Amino acid sequence: MTTASLPFNSTNVRNYIALNSLRAGLATTARLSPELALAWTEKLFFTPPRHDWPLAEREWLARAEQGTLHTAGMPVPEWDGKPMRSYRWGEARRGKIVVQHGWGGRATQFQAFLPGLLDAGYQVIAIDAPGHGASAGKRASLIHFAQALTRLVRNEGAVDGLIAHSLGGAASIYALASEGLPVGRVALIAPSADVAVWARQVSGMLGLSCELQARLRTRMETRFGLQWDELNAIHRAAELQQPALIVHDRGDKEVAAQAGIGIASAWVGAQLQLTEGLGHRRILKDAAVVDSVLRFMRG
């Protein structure tokens, strides 16, 4: 998760005004009713931006065999039982590969990987996480992502590989470590690592006081029944044994490269590839990155 979690940033005048207005509103609300401010802030943290599909991705939507899975085992009752859109491309002549998008993303963002994977004989399966793409719901979190991935992999029985981006990377590590998912090789692209770091970034953007930040953390941990440290991808990566490739851009402004470096260091035997000038999203379309991941998946 990153500061891009919010439906705006401070890169243009309109968003700058919106952010300042939100900060002022939160500050006023916190003075009048701290509990209301907490509820408002929590809603912001759990509401992902939802984007339409560009033309190139629509072509892959049309080619996919689409289905539905439902959320199961979520810690909050109203989050459970939501329909999630699943996708399947190609035939599993060589095996199956799962792709997992990040915060605010969708399955078809892996369009650059699909031709090579299909040509290599892999069937590619994916899901839009809750609150994303064509899936239902308005709320999402790392737990939503991990549960969605778990449902998808369990539904297949086992998969030969997993490719994940951003928050999808942190959620994949949590699912692999906590659920023991039957996954062969794992490639993570610009993976996030620490919920606490993300929360501090967003809290700073919103101008939250230290007291409100601490109360928000307690509120979230209580809601999920989990300590944030249990979600730390660097800590959980040390529990994993699958062959892994971690790819991260040195100049990533949304998820610092140190997250990927830390995960690669903790994951026994993991390979680390650092890129230059690709940022957080262009890295998903870079031909050299795609080629590296495909070669890694082929073993």
From TrEMBL:
Residues 93-197 form the Serine aminopeptidase S33 domain. Pfam families: Hydrolase_4 (PF12146). Keywords: Hydrolase. One of its GO terms (molecular function) is hydrolase activity. InterPro entries: AB_hydrolase_fold, Carboxylesterase_BioH, Hydrolase_4. Signal peptide: none annotated. Gene3D superfamilies: alpha/beta hydrolase. This is Lysophospholipase, alpha-beta hydrolase superfamily.
